[in-house]
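Incident log, structure service

09:12 report received: a user says their structure output differs between two submissions of the same chain.
09:20 pulled the input from the user's history:
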Amino acid sequence: MNLLANVTKGFSGADLTEICQRACKLAIRESIEKDINREKERQRSGQTAMDSDEPDLVPEIRRDHFEEAMKFARRSVSDNDIRKYEMFAQTLQQSRGFGSQFRFPDEQQASQEGGAGGK
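09:34 re-ran on a clean worker, output below:
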């Protein structure tokens, strides 16, 4: 996971979602293909229909699915766009300024001022 995090630095959440979905689809396709092949082999040998208790031949998304998915990975947000967003976020935080210094008074100070509501 650390390697994946490092090589996807700057990717958006949507970009990461696309990678994960592609890896998932690759695993599903592989599972379906193996089920079809298993069923064809069963028919050739004259066995009955597939038993529902048979294990899934691709029970999880593996490393190779992610490796294949990464071949198609792309960033949809440029470094310049990220810098613009960071500057906007900083400006927005500064314009809200009052919230960064807000603190509730401690209990002793609040009781001296008349409790809740500052009576």
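09:41 both user submissions now match this output. Likely a transient worker issue. Closing.
09:42 reviewer note: The helical segments are 2-7, 13-44, 63-70, 79-95, 107-112. The chain is about 60% helix and 0% strand.
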